[in-house]
Every structure is written in C-alpha cells, then in structure tokens.
Amino acid sequence: MTPPIRVLLVDDHQLVRAGLQVLLEPLAFVTVVAACATAAEAYAAVAQHHPNVVLLDINLPDESGTEVCRQLTARYPALRVLALTTLNEKSYVLRMMEHGAAGYVLKNASPEELAEAIARVHAGKKYFSDEVQELLLRPTPAAAPGPPLLTRREREVLRLIAEGLTSQEIGNRLFLSPLTIETHRRNLLTKFEVSNTASLIRLAAQQQLI
Questions:
Q1: In this structure, are 111 and 156 located in the same domain?
Q2: 178, 119: one domain
Q3: N or C, fewer C-beta in 10 Å, the chain?
Q4: Quick one: 182 and 82 in the same domain?
Q5: Rounded to whole angstroms, how far apart are CA atoms 205 and 194?
Q6: What radius of gyration, in Å, describes the C-alpha atoms of the chain?
Q7: SS3 190
Q8: Strand ranges across the sheet with 53-56
Q9: Are residues 84 and 54 in the same domain?
Q10: Are 189 and 64 in contact, with CB atoms under 8 Å apart?
Q11: Number of folded domains in the chain?
C-alpha cells in the first residue's frame, strides 16, 4: 500500500490552518504532519517531520514566503512547495517559480482542486490554478519595473509607519483595529520584499512613496 503524502501547512492565520486540516483530513492519500504560523516554525517542522509537500502562504510575519520557498527547495531538493495564497499577481507567481515552487494555488480553490494540486506536485508535476495560468499567459510589459502597486489604505499605513507610529496608534488614527494594521504591515513587507520596518521605510523613501 502506498504511504500517504506527508503535508506541512504554513499559514499565519489559525483559522486557515484549522480549515485546511478539516479539508484534508478525509483524504486517505494525505496526512497532515504539522501546521506552522511562521517561517521559523516551518524550517523546524520540515527538519523534524520530513514532509513531501509544503502548502505555503506567501504572507508570513517573520519572513517572505518567497524566501522560505527558496530556502526549503535549496535544502531539500525532493521537497515540493505549493504556494497557497490570496496574492493573484504575476510577479509573485514568477518569483515563486524562480525559487523552486512546484505550483501556485489561490485560496478560493475548491477542496477538490487543492487535493488534485497536492497529488500532482507530489507526482513531480506542476500545478497552477486556472486564474494563475491566465496570468502567466498575459504578456509582460517591457518597461522597467517600478515601485509595487499599493492600495490607498496601504499608502496611508506606510506614511504613518514612516512617521514612527505603532500599530495601535495607526489603528486609532485610521479607526481600524491593530490586527488590521498588522495585516497591512505584513502585506507591505511582502510587496517591498523586505523583512523589517527599517528596510521598508528606506526602500519606500528611495522610490519616493513617502
């Protein structure tokens, strides 16, 4: 009998991790060996549990998922990394592929699609959601890349971060919860491909965004 595919979940939202475990539990060909909330936890869990497939969110609190993918595929060539994210942008897809990802699935995928994606990448194939495949088929503009595209709210949060305000203070200023501000912070770090606030402010200043 073929042993089940050993899957590691990496997502900083507890509800997402719990939901994924509920979705994957009925699948006889899959066993979830661990669930992690940070990059540091993911590195330790891979070393301890030796998964076959890692379901990896790109937005993590301590390190970009693209860097986690690069590190894991470099250390464990047989490991298959499957991005599972809400980020439907071509630049992220290409970056994950460059760093060794075996596939890219959006979080609006059905349970059946997720099961198929896990089976496909474990078999050594690539898997991309239909929306992601459409993204990859779109021509890439020849112009030099500019600063990341930010929402109006992200620009507001970025400006207040540069002023030295804490998440609580920013939340008070914008009438948002500190948790929401932390999510914006993580999204900004991911979009600028930096790991800390100082680097974020420096790069944003260089690109004249603050």
A1: no
A2: no
A3: N
A4: no
A5: 14
A6: 18
A7: helix
A8: 30-36, 5-10, 53-56, 80-85, 103-106, 127-128
A9: yes
A10: yes
A11: 2
Is the residue at 144 inside a domain? no
Structural domain that includes position 174? 152-206
Query: Which helix or strand (DSSP H or E) is residue 78 part of?
Result: none
Average pLDDT, stretch 41-51?
97
Q: Do 177 and 101 share a structural domain?
A: no
Residue in this structure with the two tokens 């979080």, named with its chain if needed: 107
167 in any annotated domain? yes
Q: Is residue 110 part of a domain?
A: yes
77-81, 142-146, 195-199: segment of lowest average pLDDT: 142-146
Neighbouring CB atoms inside 10 A of 163's CB total 12
Query: Each residue of 91-121: pLDDT tens digit?
Result: 888 889 999 999 999 998 899 999 999 999 9
Residue 143 forms part of a structural domain = no
- For the whole model, what pTM was predicted? 0.69
Q: Which alpha helices (DSSP H) does the chain contain, by range?
A: 14-24, 39-49, 65-75, 90-98, 111-122, 130-137, 152-162, 167-174, 178-192, 197-206
Asked if residues 54 and 42 have their Cβ atoms less than 8 Å apart, the reply is yes
Tokens of 78: 């047989």
Tell me the residue type at 189: L
CATH number at residue 159: 1.10.10.10
Tokens describing residue 24: 């994957």
Q: Give the pLDDT band (50/70/90) at residue 140.
A: low
Backbone angles phi, psi at 208, to 5 degrees: 60, 40
> Do 123 and 65 lie in a common domain?
yes
